[in-house]
From TrEMBL:
Keywords: Cell membrane, Membrane, Transmembrane, Transmembrane helix
Chain segments annotated as transmembrane: 39-58, 70-89
InterPro entries hit by this protein: DUF3817_TM
Top-rank taxon: Bacteria
Keyword Membrane found: yes
Cellular localisation: Cell membrane
Protein name: DUF3817 domain-containing protein
Length: 114
């Protein structure tokens, strides 16, 4: 894995959890708007919208650089529209990055999978 690919995956991973948190806060604000006089939906909507757009941009960049299959790319996109999906995406991307580092080190040391 080259540096640009690793960077693309890291950016996607770093925006996943905040996007999921903003989605959950937006849902809470929506409920509070309807049950109380508290209305933070416009602010949280904007915050979540910006984070979602960043997620989609970083997702597209990661898909382009990693050459994911259509199924893998769709999986990460679907995770972005689920309220807690960003947490799962972050965990899965972290695991994939760690596996890629291990595989890269094994190639450098000449270790071949048997």
């Amino acid at each position: 894995m080259d540096l640009k690919t690793a960077t693309a995956l890291r950016r996607l991973r770093l925006v996943s959890a905040p996007e999921a948190v903003s989605f959950l806060l937006l849902l809470i604000c929506s409920v509070l708007k309807r049950t109380t006089d508290f209305n933070a939906v416009p602010v949280m909507g904007m915050v979540h919208g910006v984070l979602f757009i960043l997620y989609v941009i970083f997702w597209a960049d990661a898909w382009n650089r990693t050459k994911w299959s259509l199924g893998t790319a769709a999986f990460y996109f679907v995770l972005s529209v689920l309220p807690t999906g960003g947490f799962f995406a972050e965990r899965k991307l972290k695991r994939a990055a760690e596996d890629a580092v291990i595989a890269s080190r094994a190639r450098q040391e000449g270790v071949v999978n048997a």
